[in-house]
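Need residues for this backbone.
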């Protein structure tokens, strides 16, 4: 019998040396040794309902601790519910100073692959922060294949460590971050697979953190010009071609819809185009993101409540820009273009008006009956720009309608489109990423609502089915090219924390896009 080689590796070794340091995020390692031997400040075991009775790490730890763990489970009524956690001192019974349990409900293997693990690993990191334990170990039982599970846990841990605290000056800014987290996968993958899993998680989570940062920044800071500068900088560093069009350049092209939205704002609009063109490529994918840096509603002005979170209205742009940069960092053999028409939507003496008839980049005329339906206007011109690149597939991501949040709630994105196989492929990538998405229809009859007496289209239909009429409006601008539209109005930001996803910007969509591109390249 050959003993398995003992190894432990960290992301310092797994990551390309060009990657910028991201101090807000966590140093990760994978270790194939026994987690119970880990010399850390806190050892966290993800625990499913079945593990409470089973003979896993929990049972072994309890033996070493003389029954302390099971007593704590009873005393604290720990039922392994998702999100539930428990923490106890080991009093020298284990090398770890403390032991923690994090519930994963039906178990790490249940539900979408990796979803429970992402949440649990994020929760483990938050536990470590809350008790001031700088070094944390995390282990689990079951789950997806060891490599996929390691990747999911690594993603969850690093995303759980994300914080946007640059504007805090009070004691909350003093919270110490974790120094390091070591993963102990059950049935560990070999060292090379573990290194790949860490590297993939590193790239993906850096992209999510970038997207979250873009969205979390106040609109007064994250202006269209600032997005172009930041994304352009990441893009050039990763080897993408960066094209930024200002107002005059967009006017010359004829982007009448995008520029109408921009005309009420004192901030200059920017059309951002990042292009990743590898030497060999399997297909050409165009990603379009809604980049409204602040949506006041324009002259159809929103209420205070409705406007409160509208710095988030560029989350689609943030997602596609960050994902395209990640695709380049991984040198995927697939051509990727990220497009974001960035502008504010503001009321002023120069705003576009109700009743205006505008001409789109592709020549269609649109009568405006609500200036708060601005996203579809900016997207329409970006989609036309995208079609001119002759893509094999177009995917757009947009905080497009409150109606989609009414339909699906705050955690689930609505997925519409004109091509079954593209929609299926994208939804499979979303499933792999643990992001909740649900297919919505585009009923042709609803498109009647978008007919205008004096123009080719109106920009809004009636109230009911608002997510679908928005999708139907976009459909007018994609021709026969396979297209998927993802309405992320709900999940783009979170009002409750859950494991790897904190309050505020979630970076929703980034990992699904990246996984879609990875799968398309494979
Ligand atoms: N950016 C909003 C959609 C939105 C609402 C995103 C809530 C996130 C949370 C979009 O521009 C908008 O205002 N949509 C209108 C459409 C309506 C005027 C047809 C809406 O949803 O009310
Ligand atoms: Mn709006
Ligand atoms: Zn909007």
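Answer:
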């Amino acid at each position: 019998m050959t003993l398995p080689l003992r190894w432990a590796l960290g992301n310092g070794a797994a990551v390309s040396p060009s990657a910028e340091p991201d101090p807000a995020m966590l140093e990760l390692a994978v270790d194939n040794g026994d987690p119970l031997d880990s010399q850390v400040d806190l050892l966290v075991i993800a625990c499913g309902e079945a593990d409470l009775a089973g003979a896993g790490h929990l049972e072994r730890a309890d033996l070493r601790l003389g029954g302390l763990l099971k007593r704590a489970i009873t005393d604290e009524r720990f039922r392994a519910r998702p999100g539930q956690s428990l923490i106890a001192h080991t009093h020298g019974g284990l090398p770890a100073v403390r032991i923690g349990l994090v519930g994963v409900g039906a178990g790490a293997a249940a539900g979408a692959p990796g979803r429970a693990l992402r949440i649990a690993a994020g929760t483990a990191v938050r536990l470590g922060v809350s008790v001031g334990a700088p070094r944390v170990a995390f282990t689990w039982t079951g789950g997806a294949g060891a490599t996929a599970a390691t990747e999911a846990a690594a993603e969850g841990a690093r995303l759980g460590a994300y914080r946007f605290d640059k504007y805090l000056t009070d004691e909350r800014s003093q919270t110490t971050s974790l120094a390091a987290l070591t993963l102990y996968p059950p049935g560990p993958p070999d060292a090379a697979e573990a290194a790949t899993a860490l590297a993939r998680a590193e790239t993906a989570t850096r992209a999510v953190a970038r997207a979250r940062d873009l969205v979390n920044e106040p609109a007064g800071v994250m202006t269209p010009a600032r997005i172009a500068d930041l994304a352009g900088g990441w893009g050039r560093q990763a080897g993408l071609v960066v094209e930024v069009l200002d107002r005059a350049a967009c006017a010359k092209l004829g982007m009448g819809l995008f520029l109408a939205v921009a005309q009420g704002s004192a901030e200059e609009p920017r059309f951002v185009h990042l292009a990743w063109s590898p030497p060999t490529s399997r297909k050409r994918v165009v990603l379009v993101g809604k980049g409204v840096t602040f949506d006041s509603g324009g002259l159809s002005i929103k209420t205070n409540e409705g406007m409160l979170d509208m710095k988030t209205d560029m989350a689609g742009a943030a997602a596609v820009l960050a994902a395209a940069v990640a695709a380049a960092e991984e040198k995927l053999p697939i051509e990727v273009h990220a497009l974001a028409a960035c502008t504010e939507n503001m009321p002023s003496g120069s705003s576009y008006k109700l009743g205006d008839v505008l001409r789109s980049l592709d020549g269609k005329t649109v009568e405006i009956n609500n200036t708060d339906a601005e996203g579809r206007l900016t997207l329409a011109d970006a989609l036309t720009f995208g079609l001119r690149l002759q893509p094999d597939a177009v995917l757009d991501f947009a905080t497009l309608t409150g109606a989609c949040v009414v339909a699906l709630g705050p955690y689930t994105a609505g997925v519409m489109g004109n091509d079954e196989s593209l929609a299926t492929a994208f939804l499979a990538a979303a499933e792999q990423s643990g992001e909740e998405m649900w297919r919505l229809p585009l009923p042709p009859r609803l498109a009647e609502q978008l007919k205008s007496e004096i123009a080719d289209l109106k920009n809004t239909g009636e109230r009911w089915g608002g997510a679908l009429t928005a999708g139907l409006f976009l459909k007018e601008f994609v021709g026969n090219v396979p297209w998927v539209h993802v309405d992320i109005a709900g999940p783009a930001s979170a009002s409750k924390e859950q494991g790897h996803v904190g309050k505020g910007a979630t970076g929703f969509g980034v990992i699904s896009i990246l996984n879609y591109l990875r799968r398309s390249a494979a």
